[in-house]
Amino acid sequence: MSGGGGGRRARWRTPTLRLRVAIFVVLLHAAFATVAARVLWEDPRWLFIVEILLASSFVLSILFTRAVLLPLDLIGTGSELIAERDFTTRFQPVGQPELDRLVAVYNRMIDELRNERLLVREKNELLDRIVEASPGGIVIADLDGRVAEANPAAAALLGTPAGDLAGRPIAELGGPVAAALAALAPEESTIVGLPDGRRVRLRRAAFRDRGFLRSFYLVEELTRELRASERAAYGKLIRTMSHEVNNSVGAVGSLLGSLGELVHQLPDERRATAARAVRVAAARLESLAAFMQRLAGVVRVPEPEVRRCDVERLVDDVLELYAATFEERSVAVERRRDGDARSVPLDKNQIEQVLVNVVKNAVEAMPYGGILTVTTRSGSAAGALELTVEDTGEGLSEPVREHLFDPFFTTKEQGCGLGLTLTREILGRHGFPFALEPGAAGGARFRVTMSGP
Predict the structure, then answer these.
(1) Threshold 0.70, pTM exceeds
(2) Which stretches of 43-96 are DSSP H helices?
(3) Average pLDDT of the residues of the chain
């Protein structure tokens, strides 16, 4: 129907079954009352019979209505309980075979739903416990590519507390691991090198959640396995080379000694040339023996003999050792100290070798001069000392950073690629965290935290 003004239209709702039954009962008794009134009008003697019939009809109507509406009440109550996820309430039989079968079906369905819900909850709790305790990192993303959940192992490799990861886009987390995760295609994997020489394998996969695909990432550190494999491989190679070279060095050295005694028997015009050739060959032989000793040293790094050491003085001694080299290469040294000087428990000889390698690499990265900044500062942890060596040299390209700590990898024509490998082994045995990364001035920066009790 329509009217003037707003032109609103009335909406008629279909009567419920309960209302229909009530209307039917009212109309039926109205018709019965009309017939009874006509009968009594013609013959009042039917009054007693009419009253009995009306009362009986009324009682039967009530029983009929209850019989019709009881299943509706049962269905309505059951649907409300299911909508509210109440799987604990069960119905009792009402004594009607048809309804009792419906009650039995409903109760059985509720029991199965409750058991399945408990099973799913237990499985979810088990999975949560497994994810939480897993030594491998797991990152679960939402539909928008943001971090929905990350376990402690993943947070440690990402360098961000687990509580700060939720809701953040993976690409904006920062660091090499997050950048590599964001670049992964579905079902793709890759291996990423970290600034401290560790290697991490990343893999992206997907699962279906309520009809939508969601991504999750596996972050697994391979450092221990790779280093063990590397150490076994180059250890075997070095031992084989040392055996062969040392045998040759001994024999050739003996021949050179004998040859040096025969040089004096040569004519004067050839004696000087022959003597110089023997000296050069002997020097080269000594260099070869020293080189093999350095190779063997990488494999046989001893356990640190820890004693308290004045790190500030140790750093100054190494810089003094290279004073002539700094002047020759036009390298200016800036020595900075932040905080009180302190001693740290460490193996002085091994850490000195680390400092020599780091300073030597920094100087060689500045062939045309530059600035070498060496900073020592009190660490955030009690008893810790942070050392930073930064140069203004050529810097570290992305391909180079991936292989900095690999054995035999070098960018120098005369290098053997073992300095940083030895550095990694020594600092790893000390338990000192370190990193080699691009510097603020475009060169390279080496950081190590020497911690002690």
Answers:
(1) no
(2) 47-83
(3) 76
CATH, range 134-221:
3.30.450.20
Q: How confident is the model over 144-203, as pLDDT tens digits?
A: 888 888 888 888 888 788 777 888 888 788 778 888 888 888 888 888 877 767 778 888
> CB burial class (10 A; 0-12, 13-18, 19+) of residue 251?
exposed
Return the percentage of the chain with pLDDT > 70, whole number.
74
177 burial (CB, 10 Å; 0-12 / 13-18 / 19+) is buried
Q: Which amino acid is at 326?
A: F
Helix (H, G, I), strand (E, B) or coil at 382: coil
According to the model, what pLDDT value does residue 223 have? 64
436: which strand partners?
446
Closest CA to 360 of 403, 410, 400: 410
Residue with tokens 């909508």: 83
| Among the four given CATH numbers 3.40.50.1100, 3.40.50.150, 3.30.160.100, 3.30.565.10, the one describing domain 307-450 | 3.30.565.10
Q: What angle do CA 422, 426, 452 make, to 5 degrees?
A: 155
What are the extents of the domains in the chain? Answer: 17-86, 134-221, 225-299, 307-450
Task: State mean pLDDT over 262-269.
Answer: 68
Give the contacts of 253 (CB within 8 A, at least 6 positions apart): 282, 285
CA–CA gap between residue 119 and residue 158 (Å, rounded): 33
Task: Tell me the C-alpha to C-alpha distance, in Å, between residue 80 and each of 17, 101, 104, 109.
Answer: 18, 20, 18, 15
Whole-Å CA distances, 355 to 154, 316, 448:
32, 10, 10
Q: Which residues lie below 8 Å from residue 361, measured CB to CB, with a gap of 6+?
A: 419, 420, 444
Q: How many residues are recorded in the chain?
A: 453
